[in-house]
UniProtKB/TrEMBL annotation:
It is found in: Cell membrane. The lineage of its organism: Bacteria, Bacillati, Actinomycetota, Actinomycetes, Kitasatosporales. This is ABC transporter permease subunit. One of its GO terms (biological process) is transmembrane transport. Keywords: Cell membrane, Membrane, Transmembrane, Transmembrane helix, Transport. PANTHER family: D,D-DIPEPTIDE TRANSPORT SYSTEM PERMEASE PROTEIN DDPC-RELATED, OLIGOPEPTIDE TRANSPORT SYSTEM PERMEASE PROTEIN APPC. It is a multi-pass membrane protein. The keyword Transport applies. The keyword Lyase does not apply. Belongs to the binding-protein-dependent transport system permease family. Pfam families: BPD_transp_1. Residues 392-578 form the ABC transmembrane type-1 domain. The chain crosses the membrane at residues 108-132, 153-177, 189-208, 246-268, 288-310, 340-358, 396-417, 424-446, 452-474, 513-534, 554-582. InterPro entries: BP-dependent_transpt_permease, MetI-like, MetI-like_sf. It comes from Streptomyces liliifuscus.
Length: 592
């Protein structure tokens, strides 16, 4: 392999990426078109019930609906007819309401896009707060061994639908500062934007906070400090160096703020795109569902192209010329406080689990409904009088086990597709537009609602953050000078992957996976909240959050316990990444 061919490999073929986008988009639209038939239910029956709530329709009524909608022609004929109408600016009419689809989707998209901009502003502000300490200390060469990732982990573990309920109760109902329901103007955007933006900002800020120390310890930073450059100047260039690796995480975040905020939209009664897609999918209303999916696909592709252009602008000619220095986290020893935090979280979690396993999670006592914490019930009881400590303990293995399995599958899939950048670029952009709710509808249509159908749904879409991150890091590593030096000495592709690419990419992706582990639990909880995941009476942490969410004002202890163990799990995961040996630490240990 020559240096010239290596540089050519750095640039994924545009036509292959475009073909991947087209293929993935067509497959997604076809799968959505098949949704009514995959479920095994008669689409005419579902549409008729959605129209008139008739619980016992006659065969004559069903035949009339089939003839009116042309259901006997099958889903592919409907898909072709819908695509033909799009070329003339006609997205069809709703099967349920009979109204034109395009105005509905346009209005819902405008609401969701506005909400996305507000949530994105909150995301950037929270990420800036999370990284402020590292930026200040790093630019002055006073950065300690650890970073302030614990606070980011706690914020990232906040369930968005639970945070939305708390914000609506406190600031909407109690204080009356903002509307608690509806979409009436800018004031209606504040609370849902906070509910969506705070966890997302903590997630992105945590990833950026983990990457910044490597930039501040690069040779150029030491040289600039020695020559007396202002700390603000060094900070800007360190951000420019590290943002390129974190920017791809914005793609699934942006799309999730538009199409994946269904639970938040339901709580605040917001007529957004995600809620429109969910309602259309439940009613098997094909035209608005297809149009909504197409809008999300177009948005995802546009966001992906924009983020890719921003990355290339940040990295500059060094990416093209193969002159990027490799980013490696400095070989600091983990602080004693980090070890204590990790040990404390592990002990508390084990104590809660063991104590809960000794109790009966299914015992119902209607005389003990919504009791506060006491000696008999250390974490209180739920709306049926069941002991919350028992339910937390018995749900631990199922919750953590499913989340670990889903995260592992998503991480491996993301790494493999990230390595195949020419094929995976377009696929990642399109699949990241598919909300987990819609993926869950596709899987539950075949398997029915269950924990494993929800897990499969998350696996279908959950690999995109890892693929986007891996592709960006692979591209940067291929453009590094030591990579080209290895090529010039005759290293083959297998050697480069084993000794350069995987060691540089694996650690950041694994840290991302551990940071997102509680988020995976929350996504599964959101599906349960919408009736698409774990079904009662299973004692699963996300299920506990969703079923106790209506009582957050009357009995806040019913959600404090599940939210607390999720926060502990998140802090434990982040602390474990700080204690795990990085690439530079392993090299230093090897030299010794």
């Amino acid at each position: 392999m020559s240096v010239t061919s290596a540089r050519a490999d750095m640039r994924p073929s545009r036509w292959r990426a475009g073909l991947g986008r087209l293929t993935a988009g067509a497959a997604l639209l076809t799968a959505v078109a098949l949704l009514p038939w995959l479920s095994g239910n008669d689409p005419a029956l579902t549409v008729l019930r959605a129209r008139s709530a008739d619980q016992d329709p006659t065969p004559t009524q069903l035949a009339a609906v089939r003839e009116q909608l042309g259901l006997d022609e099958g889903p592919l004929a409907h898909l072709a007819h819908w695509l033909g109408g799009l070329t003339q600016g006609d997205a069809g009419t709703s099967w349920v309401s009979g109204e034109p689809v395009l105005p509905q989707v346009t209005s819902a998209f405008a609401v969701s896009f506005t909400l996305m901009l507000g949530a994105l502003a909150v995301t950037i502000a929270v990420a800036a707060l999370v990284t402020a300490r590292t930026l200040y200390m790093g630019s002055r060469h006073r950065l300690p061994g650890g970073t302030g990732a614990t606070g980011a982990a706690v914020l990232a573990a906040l369930p968005k639908f639970l945070l939305a309920s708390i914000l609506a109760t406190v600031f909407g109902v109690w204080l009356g500062w903002f509307p608690s329901s509806g979409w009436e103007g800018p004031s209606s955007m504040m609370l849902p934007a906070l509910a969506l933006g705070v966890p997302s900002g903590a997630m992105l800020g945590g990833l950026l906070d983990q990457s910044l120390p490597a930039a501040f310890h690069e040779p150029w930073a030491r040289t600039w400090r020695a020559y007396g450059f202002a700390p603000g100047h060094i900070t800007r260039h360190a951000l420019r160096r590290t943002l390129a690796g974190v920017l791809p995480q914005l793609l699934p975040t942006v799309v999730a703020l538009v199409g994946g905020a269904v639970a938040v939209e339901k709580i605040f009664n917001i007529p957004g795109l995600g809620r429109l897609a969910l309602d259309a999918a439940i009613a098997q209303d094909f035209p608005p569902l297809q149009t909504t999916t197409l809008a999300l696909v177009v948005l995802g592709i546009a966001a992906g192209l924009l983020i890719q252009a921003l990355r290339r602008a940040l990295l500059g000619p060094a990416l093209r010329d193969g002159a990027l220095p490799a980013l490696h986290i400095p070989a600091h020893r983990s602080g004693r406080s980090t070890r204590w935090v990790a040990a404390l979280c592990a002990v508390v979690l084990l104590t809660v689990i063991v104590a809960g396993l000794l109790r009966d999670p299914l015992q119902v006592d209607t005389a003990a409904r919504l009791l506060p914490p006491s000696t008999a019930h250390p974490l209180g009881t739920d709306s049926l009088g069941r002991d919350l400590l028992a339910r937390l303990g018995h749900g631990a293995m199922r919750t953590v086990g499913v989340a670990l399995a889903v995260t592992s599958v998503c991480t491996v899939t993301g790494l493999l597709l990230g390595m195949a950048a020419q094929v995976g670029a377009g696929l990642t952009e399109v699949v990241s537009t598919l909300p987990a709710v819609l993926a869950a509808l596709l899987t539950t249509a075949v398997t029915g609602p269950s924990a494993w159908s929800a897990a499969c749904a998350v696996c279908l879409v959950g690999w995109t953050p890892y693929a986007a991150q891996a592709a960006a890091l692979f591209e940067q590593e291929r453009a590094s000078s030591h990579m080209l030096a290895s090529v010039s000495f005759g290293a083959d592709r297998a050697y480069l992957i084993r000794h350069h690419l995987l060691p540089a990419v694996l650690s950041p992706v694994l840290r991302n996976a551990l940071l997102r582990l509680p988020t995976t639990v929350l996504v599964l909880a959101s599906l349960g909240f919408l009736g698409l995941g774990e079904q009662p009476p299973t004692a699963e942490w996300g299920r506990l959050l969703s079923e106790n969410q209506p009582y957050v004002e009357l009995a806040p202890w019913t959600v404090i316990g599940p939210a607390g163990v999720l926060a502990l799990l998140s802090v434990l995961a982040v602390s474990s990444t700080a204690l795990a040996p990085t690439r530079s630490r392993r090299r230093r240990a090897a030299k010794r």
